[in-house]
TrEMBL record:
<dbReference type="GO" id="GO:0008479">
    <property type="term" value="F:tRNA-guanosine(34) queuine transglycosylase activity"/>
</dbReference>
<feature type="binding site">
    <location>
        <position position="384"/>
    </location>
    <ligand>
        <name>Zn(2+)</name>
    </ligand>
</feature>
<comment type="function">
    <text>Catalytic subunit of the queuine tRNA-ribosyltransferase (TGT) that catalyzes the base-exchange of a guanine (G) residue with queuine (Q) at position 34 (anticodon wobble position) in tRNAs with GU(N) anticodons (tRNA-Asp, -Asn, -His and -Tyr), resulting in the hypermodified nucleoside queuosine (7-(((4,5-cis-dihydroxy-2-cyclopenten-1-yl)amino)methyl)-7-deazaguanosine). Catalysis occurs through a double-displacement mechanism. The nucleophile active site attacks the C1' of nucleotide 34 to detach the guanine base from the RNA, forming a covalent enzyme-RNA intermediate.</text>
</comment>
<keyword id="KW-0819">tRNA processing</keyword>
<feature type="region of interest" description="RNA binding">
    <location>
        <begin position="290"/>
        <end position="296"/>
    </location>
</feature>
<dbReference type="InterPro" id="IPR004803">
    <property type="entry name" value="TGT"/>
</dbReference>
<feature type="binding site">
    <location>
        <position position="259"/>
    </location>
    <ligand>
        <name>substrate</name>
    </ligand>
</feature>
<feature type="binding site">
    <location>
        <position position="352"/>
    </location>
    <ligand>
        <name>Zn(2+)</name>
    </ligand>
</feature>
<feature type="active site" description="Nucleophile">
    <location>
        <position position="309"/>
    </location>
</feature>
<comment type="subunit">
    <text>Heterodimer of a catalytic subunit and an accessory subunit.</text>
</comment>
<keyword id="KW-0328">Glycosyltransferase</keyword>
<dbReference type="InterPro" id="IPR002616">
    <property type="entry name" value="tRNA_ribo_trans-like"/>
</dbReference>
<feature type="region of interest" description="RNA binding; important for wobble base 34 recognition">
    <location>
        <begin position="314"/>
        <end position="318"/>
    </location>
</feature>
<keyword id="KW-0862">Zinc</keyword>
<dbReference type="InterPro" id="IPR036511">
    <property type="entry name" value="TGT-like_sf"/>
</dbReference>
<feature type="binding site">
    <location>
        <position position="347"/>
    </location>
    <ligand>
        <name>Zn(2+)</name>
    </ligand>
</feature>
<feature type="binding site">
    <location>
        <begin position="134"/>
        <end position="138"/>
    </location>
    <ligand>
        <name>substrate</name>
    </ligand>
</feature>
Length: 437
């Protein structure tokens, strides 16, 4: 465990760094103007391949230190340097080339000293492809009740012994440098989008900008690790525009849209994504954080987003749910007790493929039998669900390259909602970028 423990006197090094990053203006215009004119090292290349002629959807390839990644992409979440239920080889077989690790959890265990000793998370987990890490700040707020955000950082109580501890932008960067992730996220100030406290939302947005400056200043490996900024501002589109303007000035290799999937209405979510992507540069990847439902992804791609992540596909597998092209199936339902077909007809995942094609030929009846009492049922559904999401992204990419994304959206919603009318928020959002479904 190697978090910074809080002391009774102010930490002079942290306050000094903060003062260097913060000027009289809350956005630190002076230092940023100087930074934006310099050529910054980057560990990625963004290669735009195609644009949809109707919507804002685009296909590209992201060249990262551990290999190329085709966008749009869904990134499975391997919180503890492991995707629950899958070995690294099984995750590789799904086609995954970029997954997430959790900075907060890896900072607690195995801890920074172990990560430094082994040479980073790639070696720790035996993963030869790319890793993205969050900053650790979100978990402080979401998992720990006794957490407080100040200009210094996130103060919280250790979940092990209850001692006061502190996560600063500088320490978040140090941890992520030790993890060795290909993409690392800035420490940002996160509050729920549905919060009615406009002043607190504005404070969080402005503080996230200041903290980005501190992250940039303390990032030790910019030639081998990519630091992404995170746009905040809740559901206030003016604040989002303001934040976009300031974050773009920092010229980070990629840009994330954060603070969503927090209970807001889907129509509001779409407005934020659409507004932000319209202000972001064409030559950088755009990452909408915490998004994993297929219908959300299909719409967000049309709105100009490239990257997505969520624990939902793996978490819902543990409840016996299979994601299919015709919607989500709860295989704990007794109707599947004598259903001897595959989880999804035509699926090429290891779970569904016939044995003569190298698969396991798992049936819905077998999953029904296992789901309530054996962990292997969750493992098999995890295998299927991750494969399904990554396969969906490949089909999305192909549709964009073929300039058939409008038709793809129409067909997707017709099948996924089994002929029922698609949700009005999706209809409106897609109509806003020229797609009728």
């Amino acid at each position: 465990m190697h978090w910074t423990r809080q002391v009774t006197k102010p930490r002079l090094d942290i306050f000094t760094a903060a003062k260097q990053a913060i000027t009289a203006s809350p956005y630190a215009f002076g230092p940023v103007a100087a930074m934006s004119t310099a050529t910054k090292p980057s560990a990625l290349t963004f290669d735009l391949k195609a644009r949809c002629s109707t919507s804002k959807a685009r296909a590209s390839t992201l060249h990262l230190p551990h290999g190329p990644v085709d966008l749009p992409i869904f990134m499975p979440v391997a919180t503890q340097a492991s995707l629950k239920g899958l070995t690294p080889e099984q995750l590789e077989e799904t086609g995954c080339r970029l997954c997430l690790n959790n900075t907060y959890h890896l900072g607690l265990k195995p801890g920074q000293a172990v990560l430094d000793a082994i040479g980073g998370a790639h070696k720790l987990q035996g993963w030869n492809y790319n890793i993205l890490t969050d900053s650790g700040g979100f978990q402080m707020v979401s998992l720990l009740k006794l957490a407080k955000i100040t200009e210094e950082g996130v103060r919280f109580l250790s979940p092990h012994d209850g001692s006061p501890m502190l996560l600063t932008p500088e320490h978040s960067m140090s941890l992520q440098n030790s993890i060795g992730s290909d993409i690392m996220m800035q420490l940002d100030d996160v509050i729920q989008t549905t919060s009615p406290d406009h002043a607190r939302m504005k404070e969080a947005m402005e503080r996230s900008i200041r903290w980005l400056d501190r992250c940039i200043a303390s990032h030790k490996n910019p030639s081998t690790q990519n630091l992404f900024c995170i746009i905040q501002g809740g559901l206030d589109l003016d604040m989002r525009r303001q934040c976009c303007e300031e974050m773009v000035k920092r010229d980070t290799p990629g840009i994330a849209i954060g603070g969503l999937s927090g209970g807001e209405a889907k129509a509001d979510f779409c407005k934020v994504v659409d507004t932000c992507t319209g202000l972001l540069p064409e030559n950088k990847p755009r990452y909408v954080m915490g998004i994993g439902y297929p219908e959300d992804i299909v719409v967000a791609v049309a709105l100009g987003a490239d990257m997505f992540d969520c624990v939902w596909p793996t978490r819902t597998a543990r409840f016996g749910n299979a994601i299919t092209s015709s919607g989500v199936l709860n295989l704990k339902n007794a109707r599947y007790a004598e259903d001897f077909g595959p989880v999804e007809q035509g699926c090429t995942c290891t779970c569904c493929r016939p044995k003569e094609e190298g698969g396991l030929a798992i049936t819905r009846a077998y999953i029904y039998h296992l789901a309530a009492k054996e962990t292997v049922g969750a493992h098999l559904l995890t295998m299927h669900n991750v494969h399904h999401l990554l396969s969906l992204m490949r089909r999305i990419r192909t549709a964009i390259i073929d300039d058939q994304y409008a038709s793809f959206c129409k067909q997707f919603f017709a099948k996924y909602f089994d002929g029922q009318p698609p949700p009005i928020w999706a209809v409106d959002a897609l109509k806003g970028v020229g797609i009728e479904i």
